[in-house]
Amino acid sequence: MTFNADAGASTRGVADEAAPAALTPSPTNSGRLPLRLDLFPTLTEALEYAGRGDAGYNFFNLRGGLSAVLSYSDLVRRARSLARRMAARFPRGSRIALVAETSPEFLTAFFACQFAGLVPAPMPLPVNLGGKEGYLTQVRLMVDGAKAAAAIGPLSIKEFLTDALAANSGAAVMSYEELAALTAEADALAFGPDEPCYIQYSSGSTSAPKGVIGTQASVNANLHGITKHGLKLQPGDRATSWLPLYHDMGLIGFVLAPMYGQRSVDLIATSDFVRRPLLWLRLMTDNKATITYSPSFGYELSARRAGKAEDGALDLSTLRIAGIGGDMVRPEALNLFSEAFAPAGFRATAFLPSYGMAEATLAVTFTEIGAPIDVDHVDMRHYNRSGVAQPASAVTSPDHRRGFVLCGKPLPGHAVDVRGESGATLKDREVGRIFIKGPSLTPGYFSDAEATARLYDGEWLDTGDMGYFLNGEIVITGRAKDLIIINGRNIWP
Length: 493
Hints:
Elements: H1 43-50, E1 56-60, E2 66-71, H2 72-89, E3 95-99, H3 104-116, E4 119-123, H4 131-146, E5 150-153, H5 158-164, E6 172-175, H6 176-180, E7 196-201, E8 211-215, H7 216-230, E9 239-241, H8 248-260, E10 265-268, H9 270-275, H10 278-287, E11 291-294, H11 296-304, E12 321-324, H12 331-341, E13 351-356, E14 363-366, E15 375-379, H13 380-386, E16 401-405, E17 409-410, E18 415-419, E19 432-437, H14 449-455, E20 456-457, E21 460-470, E22 473-479, E23 484-486, E24 489-491
Parallel strand pairs: 1-10, 3-4, 3-5, 5-6, 9-10, 11-12, 12-13
Antiparallel strand pairs: 1-2, 7-8, 13-14, 14-17, 15-16, 18-19, 19-21, 20-21, 21-22, 23-24
């Protein structure tokens, strides 16, 4: 079988991608349903409320055509039906590995698990990096690590799953089509507030990826914080995303958060964004998006393709939040994007730096919406010598100057601490290890007591990140494991 880096729903031939004429995107305003930014006890209760309105998920193909619409009301109906059939096949509490393609089938299966009391564990689609063997190893480790009862994905990669799990007699391999064709039914009992929600695997690793346990309590706490306090959702908001749905930014930020806030979201596959970065901006233009998110490289990639956009073809004036997360916030990449798309109405004040991690569900801190990005320019010679982020001066050479972006303050109910080697809390500009606490934190890694024990110091979670405080905001400088100490000096690669 040929290894296809773009396997999945978005990879049908371009000639076959014309959207059916009858399809129209779900509306921005969710009908007469009042915007509700409450703390829901479970994902299913949040979905059932969203299902009373008109909003939903919209799936776009490589040409920008609308290929599928899944309203929240339809999702409730489909997920409940599939949950009864999955309950007849899998014991309650089973882990179900789901290949997270950007499609209605994945989302239906994910929410069916919620209604059936099954624990979904999203897995990536195949990618070129590492080739077929790398992907098979990754799938095998994730499925074995989750002790999954089944591995389910698009028909186009079922053979990959079968090959990966040939030695695993405990996991059934199915396509989404075969899952939908199940007929036997049983009573399905949805997860309660004190039960699990999903297992989120660390992305991109083929060496023992860790399964972060998300509970109904932790996930709903973070979604409440994101929608009400971080993004401050409004009735006229609409989101657009290309982020992969096996990653916390894609799954939590642009599958669960829009649903939690009863807003519509327009989705394109990550592989389609990589091939056509301006498709992301075109969708925001066409659908008047107000919220999007990307790592810094996504903004940089789009900016470098700006010359391919026709004059007047893009209008980013409706975008009130262009969030940055998932990697170190690089001010030079954001400046490049701002300069490239200012003529299209983009405002640099739309940038929203934030900080988070899968172990905290997704988000820990946000900056203020509408405020300019705050960059702290540091003298790296002093930084490496003393561990203090001393501001660069007029005489600091460009080679020894580095800009770090302030990433905001913790969500309500959460806290961030920066500690030195002794464990003592550090002062502003003193660089140390970042610890966090709050209701969004994971109880640990699935079936990995040793890694869980290393994760916590009492109620505080060790992020493994380094940084410092400045005026009440956290500044991220790198990963602790990347720090090299030579003759008492801290050297950052």
